[in-house]
Specification:
alpha/beta, 3-stranded antiparallel beta sheet, 13 helices, elongated
């Protein structure tokens, strides 16, 4: 039976006007498994707090995220925002201001002292290198043809060597590490490879715009994934956070300090400033203006 996941299938939470899907890694593995039966080309983007903040001021980027089939919560900041926006507040504006500030302090502190508290709306962070590896393992089991697009010079080819050696049965049918502007060459290479699953690593928002503009030209691709810096992590160009930081949900902080995004023109301090204080301030302002915008027991449907 042909399936269309564009309607009525995926739980969606709205944060700052951007839809984020409350899904697990297992859900995404199932989509990869069933991709041959899709009636649409599936797009998967991984959104962290920087993505959501950018989308509040960039209408085009906001449209791309909201039109994605799946927009995963990639970071504890996203989980915090979903929980914070689900806590009831008074209709009286003055009382709501006080409540929102107190709720921000309490929920923020829980990230350190009781992380499970913020996981009741969106239960887990879904993104990063681990998610990519899990997807590749599913591709291997289901005999899906994979293509790596992007990354710095030579990286895509190295990732092909590494992942095929580590994941039995994985079939990487092509790689391309040229410029995103080389559209005709990329389309030809992907179509000739007959790839079904496409990982795009041009950095955000370039990769999301590229997928939006060109996915329809790719005849055999069923799933296109915005992959960010995962290829660089796999080859060791970027260092992963210590295990304790990964378990504590602080890998995003490590990445901001240690790994400068190739698409970022600002300093790391600027990125941290926007990803933490500015994001928190924006979410609190949004709640003061709009009140409780998420019902924890009634998630919207796409």
């Amino acid at each position: 039976m042909m399936k269309n996941y564009s309607e009525g299938k995926l739980n969606k939470i709205e944060i700052l006007g951007i839809g984020v899907n409350s899904l697990s890694s297992a859900n995404l593995a199932q989509f990869i498994k069933e991709s041959s039966n899709f009636t649409i080309q599936l797009t998967i983007f991984k959104s962290n707090s920087e993505f959501l903040l950018r989308a509040t001021s960039n209408k085009e980027f906001r449209g791309v995220l909201n039109n994605a089939t799946i927009n995963t919560p990639d970071g504890m900041g996203v989980l915090w925002a979903a929980k914070f926006l689900s806590i009831p507040v008074s209709e009286n504006r003055l009382i709501r201001i006080v409540q929102s500030v107190c709720q921000m302090i309490y929920s923020g502190a829980s990230l350190i002292f009781n992380p499970n508290y913020v996981k009741t709306v969106i239960p887990e962070r879904v993104g990063g290198v681990d998610l990519m590896i899990n997807m590749l393992k599913t591709c291997a089991k289901e005999k899906k043809k994979v293509f790596f697009l992007g990354g710095s010079k030579g990286v895509a080819g190295k990732v092909k060597e590494i992942t095929e050696a580590e994941i039995e049965g994985l079939n990487i049918v092509g790689t391309y590490d040229g410029k995103a502007e080389d559209v005709s060459e990329i389309v030809e290479a992907v179509n000739n490879s007959k790839a079904e699953i496409l990982f795009v690593a041009f950095g955000s928002p370039k990769q999301e715009f590229w997928i939006r503009d060109n996915l329809s030209k790719l005849k055999t691709v069923k799933v296109a994934i915005g992959e960010g810096g995962s290829l660089e992590f796999i080859v060791g160009n970027y260092k992963r956070a210590p295990k304790w930081m990964q378990k504590a949900g602080l890998e995003w902080l490590w990445r901001l300090f240690m790994n400068k995004s190739k698409s970022d023109t600002g300093s790391r301090l600027k990125r941290i400033w926007r990803a933490v204080p500015v994001f928190i301030h924006t979410v609190v302002k949004y709640k003061i203006k709009n009140g409780q915008t998420i019902n924890e027991n009634k998630k919207a449907q796409i």
